[in-house]
Amino acid sequence: MGSDVLIKNGMVMDGSGEPARKADVIIDGDRIKDIGSFPDAAASRVIDATGLVVAPGFIDAHTHLDFFFASPRHADVLESWAHQGVTTIVAGNCGYSPAPINHDHVDTVSAYWNFAFPRDGLEFEWTTMAEFLDHLEKIGQAFNVGILTGHGMLRTNVMGFEARFAEPDEIAEMKRMLRESIEAGSIGLSLGLYYVPGIYAHTDEIMEVASVLSDFGAPLVPHTRGMSETYAEAVREVVQIAEELQIPLHLSHHGSFIRDDPSIMERAERTIDEARKRGVEIGHDFIPYSTGSTTLLSLFPPEMFDGGLDKFFARLEDPLVRKRIIHGWETVVPGWPNWEHSWWTDNHYHNAFSSWSLICLSGFRKDGNKRFENMSVEQIAAKLEKDPFDTVFDLVLEEKGTIIVTGGAFDNPMDDDSVAAAASDPNASICSDIVGGDHGTINPVAYGAFPRVLGRIARDGGHMTIEEAVRKMTSLPAAQMGLKDRGSLRAGAFADITVFNPDTVIDRASFANPHQMSEGIEYVLINGKVILENGTYHADALAGHVIRRA
What burial letters (b/e) apply to 296-307, b meaning 16+ CB within 10 Å? Predict the structure, then answer.
């Protein structure tokens, strides 16, 4: 009797970074049966990979697609990930996850973290992480899915958006929910120490909550307490936590937005290097673009959110408060620790995004505002004949905060070398950090992150071998996230496989023309099922597994 699938005559890059070798791959069910030379092998389906690379399916190590996985539309909307060769998606990053959820705070989470939600909304048909993962399995998943538990969600469940340190009983409840979530299959704990409410947490709180991870060997995955002036201190904080608790640390989108002071990154890297020498397991992920997206609400002074979003919106109506916000944006330089400096961790108005002409808004829901989709604040203000600051304030009130901001160096080739250098770090997994996946984002990460590294950075730029690029998309993130039997081509591993043309693989999306599928990804198999072949995507395959931490 033959096997289910035979991939023959390909150049196998097994995910280790070692040189490719010509070999055949035999698949039985959802696992790889064998790899070698099998000229007489028979199978129900034969794929001739002559001239093509056969690699492990790519793992997107950092996304904000978790809430969207619960939508029955997710398979259609996420087609571009298949065209990038992605088979596994890690979500629940930056402190927010769909579970566990206190239903009293659904409206708050839905507004503040709206960029991760389906455009048509979300019915929370679960409370616990176990119920959420069961729900994902029930509706079927287009990709393999691994879900981190968000500390920000735990804190919101217990305290709402209160700008204060947690009490011992509140920390104990967070720990209880985290333990329950990890036992249900969540793969680790994410932190969002730039976002509300994580921004209000003392280091001691993080240390105590994260101590639960020690019993599981699960990773701590932080968006650090600042990615600008205080980044070195922020890195030191989470390194100290990971070292004391003896748990793996994975830094989300590692890097500082402050480019004119290289000492910040030098100090951060020195802290990391010294900790590694002491045996601390530290990795990170990186977005291969110099532009980012997030919720527009995150740019506002953190103290504005004390007590919840209703109080935030009420404060924003006050002209005097507006003046204080503008003054803060124009003058505040964050200090360490942030609780001694009005909670500020970053002032992205004057560093990451730098100008209203470089800040684009999207995700509008009001009919009268949809004409502003993906326009810069400067352009919108001109059309409204308003001051840019009042434009932002008024739109936030009209849209109840559900606006996505994208800023940075749009399609600027001057940034290509620095992006390539950062992507080449041997400890950097590649990720999309997608924001607004169901909101028509202009950020090309949704279409091109992985082929961009393979084609432009590795093949054309020569910054790394294609084998090394594949490692950074497969075995490296699998190890960092504890994804058992994923990210490598070997007998017994899950049959997540991407077959691509090494000569033609390339991204085609840009900020100017964002909705363009990548080229050169010929076949994608998830758990042994073909979900992409010769440009055709099978959205109805629903071949993904909900990955539960063993």
Answer: bbbbbbbbbbbe
> 217 and 254 share a domain?
yes
Please state the separation of Cα 530 from the chain's center in Å. 25
Residue type, 278: R
Residue 145 domain boundaries: 56-290+410-537
Confidence of residue 2 (pLDDT cuts 50, 70, 90): low
Average pLDDT value for residue range 108-114: 95
Within a domain: 549: no
Same domain, 166 and 207: yes
Same domain, 273 and 416: yes
Q: How many domains does the chain have?
A: 2
Query: Are residues 106 and 74 located together in one domain of the fold?
Result: yes
Beta-strand relationship, 249-251 and 282-286: parallel
Of 389, 408, 427, the last residue of a domain is 408
- Tens of pLDDT along 493-534? 999 999 999 999 999 999 889 899 999 999 999 999 999 999
Separation between Cα atoms, residue 246 and residue 108, nearest integer Å: 34
Considering the domain architecture, whether residues 231 and 171 belong to the same structural domain is answered as yes
Going by the DSSP 8-state scheme, the letter that residue 519 receives in this structure is: B
Q: Residue 267: pLDDT above 50?
A: yes
Note whether residue 235 is domain-resident.
Answer: yes
Query: Domain check: are 126 and 259 in the same one?
Result: yes
Amino acid 416: pLDDT: 81
d(CA 457, CA 464): 7
pLDDT for residue 349: 85
**Claim to verify: residue 238 and residue 115 sit in the same structural domain:** yes
CB neighbour class for 528 (10 Å; exposed up to 12, middle 13-18, buried from 19): buried
pLDDT on residue 291 = 81
Instruction: Judge whether 205 lies within some domain.
Output: yes
Is residue 482 in some structural domain? Answer: yes
Q: Are residues 414 and 401 in the same domain?
A: no
CA 535 to chain centre: 25
58-60 and 220-223: which strand pairing? Answer: unpaired
CA distance 534 to 11: 18
Q: Which CATH number belongs to the domain containing residue 433 in this structure?
A: 3.20.20.140
How confident is residue 1, by pLDDT bands cut at 50, 70 and 90? Answer: very low
Question: What mean pLDDT do residues 156-172 have?
Answer: 98
Indicate the pTM of the whole model: 0.97
Which of residues 408, 424, 443 is at a domain's end? 408
DSSP bridge pairs for 12: 21, 54
Mean pLDDT of 469-491: 98
How many separate helices (H) and strands (E) can be counted in the chain? 17, 23
With residue 525 as reference, give the H or E element that holds it. Answer: strand 521-526
Per residue, the 3-state secondary structure of 199-239, as one string, reads HHCCHHHHHHHHHHHHHCCCCEEEECCCCCCCHHHHHHHHH
Please give the Cα distance from 456 to 34 (Å, whole number): 32
Under 8 Å CB-to-CB from 61, ≥6 apart: which residues?
90, 250, 285, 429, 430, 431, 477, 480, 481
DSSP code for 456: I
d(CA 393, CA 433): 26
The amino acid sitting at 519 is E
